[in-house]
Amino acid sequence: xxxxxxxxxxxxxxxxxxxxxxxxxxxEGKIAAVHxxxxxxxxxxxxxxxxxxxxPGLVDTHVHVNEPGRTHWxxxxxxxxxxxxxGVTTIxxxxxxxxxxxxxxxxxxxKQEAAAGQxxxxxxxxxxxxxxxxxxxxxLHERGVYGFKCFLSPSGVEEFPPLTPDEVRxxxxxxxxxxxxxxxxxxxxxxxxxxxxxxxxxxxxxxxxASERRAVEQxxxxxxxxxxxxxxxxxxxxxCLEPLAAARRGGVRVSAETCPHYLTxxxxxxxxxxxxxxxxxxxxxxxxxxRLWAGLADGVLxxxxxxxxxxxxDLKLPDFAAAWGGIASLQLGLPAIWTEAxxxxxxxxxxxxxxxxxxxxxxxxxxxxxLVPGADADxxxxxxxxxxxxxxxxxxxxxxxxPYHGRTxxxxxxxxxxxxxxxxxxxxxxxxxx
Length: 434
Fold this sequence. Notes:
About 30% of the residues lie in helices and about 25% in strands. The strands form three sheets. Strands 1, 2, 3, 4, 5, 15, 16 and 17 form an eight-stranded mixed sheet that branches. A six-stranded parallel sheet has the order 9-10-11-12-13-14. A three-stranded parallel sheet has the order 6-7-8. Helix 4 (about 165-175) runs parallel beside helix 6 (about 210-225) and helix 6 (about 210-225) packs parallel to helix 7 (about 240-250). It has two domains: about 5-55 and about 375-385 and about 405-420, Urease, subunit C, domain 1 (Roll); about 55-365, TIM Barrel. By secondary structure, it is an alpha/beta fold. The longest helix is centred in the middle third of the chain and has 18 residues, at about 210-225. A hairpin with a 2-residue loop joins strand 16 and strand 17. The protein is built from eleven helices and 17 strands. Homotetramer.
């Protein structure tokens, strides 16, 4: 019997120390060792990627799978196939827009039963904090959710209502008892408006950056008062960076993420009437995008995750005032970010930090996020030089709607391994619940 089941070699292996030639050796689904690229090793299978990059599997902590209840929007089979095709080997599912939402232990059971046997990558779950479910937070924590999502403004679905600041404070007091994590959709409803008309500029004006900043300031203050870890979801407005940076300097336990669409798309680029670009909070100006990149570079924003929130095509009609607000991009996050990051002087090590190591650390997902001994052998062969023309109909997402349709991105995933075995989306799925 060979010492290792698998060795994957690359001249561009992205390790926590940076890019270097290496050979990653796998035993029983784990990374057993990281050797020199040309080391003589005893393995059942030896794969040499040459100049293709070897990355750890990405960790996407912001995915709306929607099953059960809205599986016609997206489901675990289609979402996790898309994830694997995009180099994502771990997702954490948001508590909405499934029916029921994951706000009780019974609802978590229903979601896991619906997902069972369908997952091509590993899956974890967030719980939800809504009015009236304080007594459900600890049971959900004990069942293994990674934290709790709340909204400060309407969520878009009536079964997941927002919390007032006082209700957030009460939830944080409960979460403090077990040192949990609250993740916050931060927009202040008092500054949100109904769009004045059907166009994108009118929609953008209805959700100003000031709404995000004020809500972020509220969340920071609640974290300061309670001592509970708070994470700000999908930061779209660079106006949030100043209070976030000040909070970090002051020792407040707050962190923040942004998403590929805020880093790669701009309001100026949105085609007339193309509601595939609609999301909440919205895609903003090119100048704002540049400032978000600066916030990512200096660590104020720590994670880049998809906020994959798809729907059926009919719900993206008829215009920006009425369409469902969500971006479908789970399969495309890595090439989208690499396309932009490379032009801004960032390397693959930066991308791996933002899209794998830091999201894993945020949620406390053990054994994910790095090419290190003892971690799960979740690996990605990535061709950073390849052109990737995007055809929405060819993606694994259930509905062919994405703002990247027709674009050519840079970088392509060639192989994704889950615990040392290549993911085959035509074979039975092997993902597990985390």
